[in-house]
Amino acid sequence: MSVVRETIVTAVEDRMMSDVGIGSFLSGDLDSAIVTAMAAGYAKRHGHRRSLHTTRW
47, 39 in Cβ contact below 8 A? Predict the structure, then answer.
């Protein structure tokens, strides 16, 4: 895994611990889509029952 990918994955996973729903603001650019995809994948792998809410701003 590249250093950049590993850094982003770690940053996203560190922020996925929450007692409330987790969401993502999508700007329409690639960076927000990548972070949202990583968060959704993490949630699915860890059996989160709540869906990942998104909105475009």
Answer: no
Token digits of residue 15: 């922020």
Neighbours of 47 (CB within 10 A): 6
Q: Which amino acid is at 55?
A: T
Q: What is the mean pLDDT of each run of 10 residues along the chain (57 residues)?
A: 90 84 86 90 84 80
Within 10 angstroms of residue 39's Cβ, the number of other Cβ atoms is 20
Cα of first residue to Cα of last residue in the chain, in angstroms, is 31
How far apart CA 49 and CA 2 sit, in angstroms, is 30
Q: Give the integer Cα–Cα distance in Å for 34 and 30.
A: 6
Q: Could you give the CA distance from residue 35 to residue 39 in angstroms, rounded to a whole number?
A: 6
